[in-house]
Known about the structure:
By secondary structure, this protein is mostly helical. The protein has helices at 2-32, 37-42, 44-55, 63-95, 103-117, 121-132, 136-160, 165-172, 177-216, 218-228, 232-260.
Amino acid sequence: MGEIKDIRKTKRLQTIVILVFVCGLTVWSAIGTDFSFYEVFSGIGLISNFVFLDLLPPDVSASNSLLDAILETLYMGFVGMVIGAGIALVLSFLAASTTTPHPVIQVVVRAFTSIIRNIPGLIWALILVASYGIGVTVGTLSLILGSIGFLTRVFADTLEEIDTGKIEALHATGSNYFQILAQGVFPQFLPGFVAWSLYNLELNIRASTIIGMVGGGGIGFAIQKGIKLFQYKEVSMAIILVLILILSTEFLTSKIRERII
């Protein structure tokens, strides 16, 4: 009984120490950022005035002119997903411990895709604007790079979780590397490949709006232009169209995933 009490006291003390540390870190961070609840609540009136007087109601008549921008956003997200998934498919087979031809290749590929993944799409867009100028090419390339980094990681993790029993059986029958991939690996990997690719499409649609605001084209660029020209009611219409596009994409991709999985 004494040992149990000591363990409980130790856990209780650890919990208290963690809570004190988190509280102290929160206060320190708030001081460092000059955050205060007074400023938050004092700005509610100004936010309300902006939303209900300047932003609303949306300018419905602008929806026709925004349709092309919405379609550009959809095209960028889809192309970024397809090309990114295709490249990531190849890289993931090199990056997964269950399918890589050599451990050195696995380390190199994982390091390369980790660098790509940890550079935000916004930064990629700013870099690419300097080379390609403002437009959908920049947005599409940024989404492709982001998709490669993200999908290579999740595809490789999926490959490492497959059942290796069939792979070992194919090894025993003398099958070569490509026969093992085609017959033992890919059938197990396919549902995860489709599911993660569709999820990446959702991420691309969201990201393309932000990327567009720094010159990547699409609806994000239209929103940025509207803000600069103080056309806030047109901006609110663009935001509504973005929400419709995102929710529609999520609904469709979730239905497809349900049928596959």
